[in-house]
Amino acid sequence: MVAVEVNAACGERRIPSQPRPRLPVNGFVVPLCDTPRMLNAELLRPLLRAAWGPDTCDPVGREQWRPDNPARSQCGTTALVVQDLLGGDLILGEVHVDGAKAWNHYWNRLPDGTEVDFTSDQFGSGEVVVGGHVQHRPPGPPRRCREQYELLRQRVFTALAPSRPA
Predict the structure, then answer these.
(1) Closest by Cα among 40, 49, 75, 39 to 148
(2) Mean pLDDT on 20-45
(3) 46 contact partners, CB below 8 Å, separation of at least 6
(4) How many Cα neighbours within 13 Å face the side chain of 116?
(5) What local confidence, expressed as pLDDT, does residue 40 receive?
(6) d(CA 8, CA 13)
(7) What are 86-144's pLDDT values in tens digits?
(8) DSSP string computed for 52-108
């Protein structure tokens, strides 16, 4: 009889002597279950906020980024990292100022249908998000903001990695 290890946090089953299964996600390979508890939007929220900086926001909006508004111009990179970790769809809407389109805004629809927008608090008075439709994500890393996405992704994945004794 072969012993099987079960991770209660995510239901993963494996033979202890075998390596943890891995899953390719948009050109990257990530462990299927390395966290001590099941990752969800509320556990992810503070990790994203701690990982944001002027170096992870869209360069087009970098001059508007401030420490007191860290979500500013983080929507695209954040939505991609959230999709990497939680799955679901990318949603694309428009930001209108004085009734006219000013720029685009991204957020996520999780596999259970819940919509989450980790950067919705970036908007000031007069900035309104309208519409929203599923945006297909091409395979591989993004063409725009690739460096910002990879930096944000690395910071969040590092924060999620189980701590290893020295």
Answers:
(1) 75
(2) 60
(3) none
(4) 22
(5) 92
(6) 9
(7) 999 999 999 999 999 999 999 999 999 999 999 999 999 999 999 999 999 988 889 89
(8) --TTTS-GGGGGG-BTTBTTTT-HHHHHHHHHHHH--EEEEEEEEETTEEEEEEEEE
Write out the H or E segment, with its range, that includes residue 155.
helix 146-160
Parallel, antiparallel or unpaired: strands 115-116 and 28-31: unpaired
Q: Is 77 in contact with 65 (CB distance < 8 Å)?
A: no
State pTM to two decimals. 0.76
Q: Across-strand partners of 104?
A: 94
Whole-number Cα distances in Å, 14 to 3, 21, 35, 38, 141: 9, 8, 15, 17, 30
Give CA–CA dist 163/166, Å, rounded: 9
As a whole number of angstroms, the distance between CA 92 and CA 107 comes to: 7
- Give the pair of three-digit tokens for residue 113: 């249908």
